[in-house]
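Many introductory courses stop at the sequence. We go one step further.
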Amino acid sequence: METQLPRETLSQLGVKALRDDQLIALILRSGGRGHSVHQIAQELAEQGLAHLNSRRLEVLKNFAGLGETKAASLLAALELGRRSWGAGGPPVTTPEEAYSQLQDLGSARKETFKALYLDGRRRLLRTEVVSIGTLTATLVHPREVFAPALECGAASLVVAHNHPSGDPTPSCEDRLLTERLSQAGRLLGLNLDDHLVIGRGCYVSLRQLGLLVA
């Protein structure tokens, strides 16, 4: 359960402290069709904001608990956010900036793998949930990671996954996967800028550990 309401968090810590699901909950304001606003917001956030932004109203309004009015409000808010950045999205040039786009993974109950796809200026083009695994593991194939990059014309990408245990220490498997994705990216002409392992309120950058070289 939430120990603090999104509005209280915003008031005390500012809007940047809110997770994606908390921002969505503030936009929706209330639940519907037997679903609480927090349940709806969490399920929507797990789909990824970029994925939501690409959905048509006719499709999104049928999501459990939404309806046309709430779906329209959500799409309008996402469009305002996109327009506020002009032609490009927010910059993702440091591990800290990447983490700001991915920190919602820290509360995920299952190991979830996400990717940020960036343009030539390292501005965010698209965010994608690549895979959702079990409580302890997720399986990721390079083609699932790089297919969206080719679709949106990305120049580079940052990948991330969470450790539901809360400890972001990279495992041997994490290190091997990083090298595998880096090699695949080089073959495709796409640079893997970083791989973040996210714990509960913290993260580790594999580039900062020296496991990725430009």
